[in-house]
Amino acid sequence: MKKNPPACPEGNSQATQRLQKAAQRNDIAAMERALSRGAEIHFKNDEALFAAASRGHTRAVRWLMERGANAAAENSRAAFEAAHGGSRQIVELLVSKGADPKALKVLKDFELYAAIVSDDTAKLVSLIKGGIDLREHGDFALCAAAVTGNAAAADILLDEGVFLFDRLDVALECASEHGKNAVIRVLLDHEEELPMPIDRSRAIGAVLRESRSNTLELLLRDGMELGAPAFAGLNPPLKPGQVEMLQCLAQIGVIVPENLLRQPRTRTQFGTSLRFAHRVGLGEELAGYVEIGMRVDALNLVRHILASERIAPEDFSEAVRAVGVISNHQKWKPIIETAYERQSLRTKRKTRVCMLLFYWALNDWQNAFRFISIRSLREPPALLAAMDTLIELDEPGRARRIATKCKAALKKAPDCFDRACLIEALARYCARCGDWSEAYALWQDAPRNEPFAINASIGMVELYVMKAMQVLQSELRLLETSRPAGDLEISLPGNEQGRIEDARRVLLKLKSGLKRIVPLDRQKKLGFDPK
Fold first, then answer.
1. How far apart are CA 85 and CA 94, in angstroms?
2. CATH pick for 107-261 out of 3.40.50.2000, 1.10.645.10, 1.25.40.20, 3.30.1330.200
């Protein structure tokens, strides 16, 4: 792969600007004139090449490559952008000239995604018969079908042998999260062809959190065993619908945690707090109570710890963590804040990360921002919390420093959970900055057996939705600025204007459909400006 050339001088800046604008328009004659007047092709890491490739202008890209443009400039940015736009000729040309071959994989992902979103089963079958490697692209395609609710596409992919367990688990979770019952039926219909049943823990966890009783009925199976992910994020008091679904699980033999079925107690059963007087290491005892599910005892110990005048930093952190696991952060917020303000400066300094994670869990971004100390942040979960907070508060400068720390930590992180946190933080940052190709590559490398696997799968699909939204916005702007060239003598008056209005109506309908898949607040987090 070619290395990026050193930064080039501007040369004739006016001619260079004309070259870039001509590349955007695919105007070869104007590009020739600009080059003859001293335009610099390599200005800003071959910005002209990127402008032409991102708009699918094959002639302009070929013209620039013949005159020495660098296909690998800025980590093959032009090739990846062309891949996200589905421009096969441009991608193949740039890869043949030294661009990153991974752009071809992104192109195939886009072609699969486009066929699935448009419900073009003929195109999907054609791609499969054309030799596309489903071992490499099948997981993404199946998740795309699950998120968009395309049951026909999911059936075709499964018939072609997309049977790896992690793919079916993640696809089932995606479909359950979005209530796509038709896709769930297709996935479960193919379960008989597998040597062992699909693990439904994460899918049922998504259904319980969203209170989708109709979807739960599809997922139930006699004698099924569920892991901890099925009950993650469920904290008493539960909604009536959630309690009913848990009781339904218990009736078919599923072991449901006792604290989720037990009614909350109104009186303390723990005994006098003198029992804990002058004792140290309460955090370890509290962690033991939480681990074995002794919710009432654990909450009483949390109250005792937070009521103390001086609290060891380890005990304070464990108490706040326990609240997040067995109770409700919002309910305990005043107690935790009062206890924190009562502590010494040393304790406050040692519990900064704990308070950052506490406010992050509450989506209280302003308070979370108070506890971000970029120099002292080291733990991957804290880096993810800080990145989320800075993105929400639109602090790109500080977010960039967090991203630098994440990249350095990622090289040394041996633990899968730590890697998942760091990759998620970097991917969210890249997406917010508009570097969708880098965000896509990061989410592709995310561990698939960690809590953020579903975020990675949905994030990749959402990036393609945003690319489609970007194209729609561009075409709508073109229609708004276009003027009818005048009706032909043999046509009825107003035909040309009617054609433009029909095109605009179809594009607005497509835009409305994409907005339902990715809401406006999520679009901003993905670096897309609806305006």
1. 14
2. 1.25.40.20
